[in-house]
Specification:
Layout (H helix, E strand, L loop, with lengths): L1 H13 L12 E2 L2 H11 L2 E7 L5 H11 L2 H7 L3 E7 L9 H13 L7 E5 L5 E5 L6 H27 L2 H15 L3 H7 L1 H10 L7 H23 L3 H11 L5 H17 L3 H14 L6 H35 L1
Parallel strand pairs: 1-3, 2-3
Antiparallel strand pairs: 2-4, 4-5
Helix pairs in contact: 4-6, 6-7, 7-9, 10-11, 11-12, 12-13, 13-14
InterPro entries: AGR/TXD, Thioredoxin-like_sf, Thioredoxin_domain
Keywords: Signal
Protein name: Thioredoxin family protein
Length: 325
């Protein structure tokens, strides 16, 4: 088998073929084969969702990390490397690979590139990352740290198996939250854990079910808002946002009010925008995005000042024109 593989490689080289993988040798496009290899070799999967011929950060990650020997040496005993490419030039990939990649993008809820997922041999994700500066050695150390999330997951699940009631629910919640995965990813790959939480905590003393329902409700809201954006219906979007804000609380309401502020700012209604932004900040002052709202406020104030200067300049021009007449 080794001789056959070497002959095939030599034949390809003689024809001038080069690696189809942005990261160079050692990567595969075949997800099913990668899972089998990972299971056989007792390794994890490192899945690189990339845009090899258009995504600047993807290209930087390849050039600064993946192509270098310290990275290859640092991961060879731990990971099977899977490159899932979404190039502009589709001729680089077979129809089968394109179909596979599209399905995986949806299943793993990939929204941006590069996205790096660490998964166990079955394909269940346990950590997520992307571009990190510092070179190959630092990136390998970063991956080693992320691998600890799998151990934490497995430990929490083992503790949950021994517990009952809310104690069981809390251990299961700890397993999910420790991985810091997108909600859609958790729902796709850990549905049994979510159902066990609900069964162990039927009165929702942990607040987990309420949190899930709120997120699902917000996701539906985002989808409806997208419809207005596609039609470029600013007035309709503003009316929709104003009507729906009362149906949410906490961080969800904060995001909706911040969206309202953005729409108003784009419409040139800067005072109303700043008012909406203040309401957004008050809705959840200790949230993760609350500090970002301060930066947003500064930007709106700059836009307001710029618009005022532009108006003053236009008024001066009108006065000058009137004098000339």
């Amino acid at each position: 088998m080794k001789a056959t593989h070497l002959f095939a490689a030599a034949f390809a080289a003689s024809l001038g073929f080069t690696s189809a993988f942005a990261g160079g040798e050692g990567w595969t496009h075949d997800f099913a084969a990668a899972k089998k290899q990972a299971a056989d070799e007792k390794k994890d999967l490192l899945m690189d969702f990339t845009g090899s011929d258009w995504c600047g950060w993807c290209i930087k990650l390849n050039d600064e990390v993946f192509k270098h020997e310290p990275f290859k040496a640092g991961v060879k005993d731990k990971f099977v490397l899977v490159e899932l490419d979404y190039p502009q030039d589709k001729s680089k990939l077979s129809e089968e690979t394109i179909k596979q990649n599209d399905e995986l993008q949806e299943k793993y809820a990939i929204q941006g590139f590069p996205t790096i997922l660490l998964c166990d041999a079955s394909g269940k994700p346990f950590a997520r990352t992307g571009y990190q500066e510092g070179g190959p050695e630092k990136y390998v150390a970063h991956l080693d740290e992320l691998r600890g999330k799998k151990d934490a997951r497995d430990k929490a699940l083992a503790e949950a198996a021994k517990a009952e009631g809310t104690a069981k629910a809390k251990a299961l919640i700890s397993a999910l939250e420790g991985m810091e995965l997108e909600d859609a990813v958790a729902a796709n790959f850990y549905p049994e854990v979510i159902e066990q939480i609900k069964a162990a905590d039927p009165k929702d003393e942990t607040g987990f079910s309420k949190k899930i329902e709120e997120k699902q409700k917000f996701a539906k809201w985002e989808s409806e808002l997208q419809g207005f954006a596609e039609k470029q219906d600013m007035e309709g979007a503003l009316a929709f946002v104003e009507k729906s804000a009362a149906d949410f609380t906490g961080e969800s309401k904060q995001k909706i009010l911040a969206t309202k502020a953005g729409i108003l700012a784009q419409s040139g209604k800067f005072d109303d925008s700043l008012k909406a932004l203040a309401e957004a900040k008050a809705a959840a002052p200790d949230s993760e995005i609350a500090p970002q709202l301060d930066n947003f406020k500064e930007r709106i104030e700059e836009m307001k000042a710029g618009a005022a200067d532009e108006k003053a300049g236009a008024d001066e021009e009108k006065k000058d024109e009137a004098k000339e007449e």
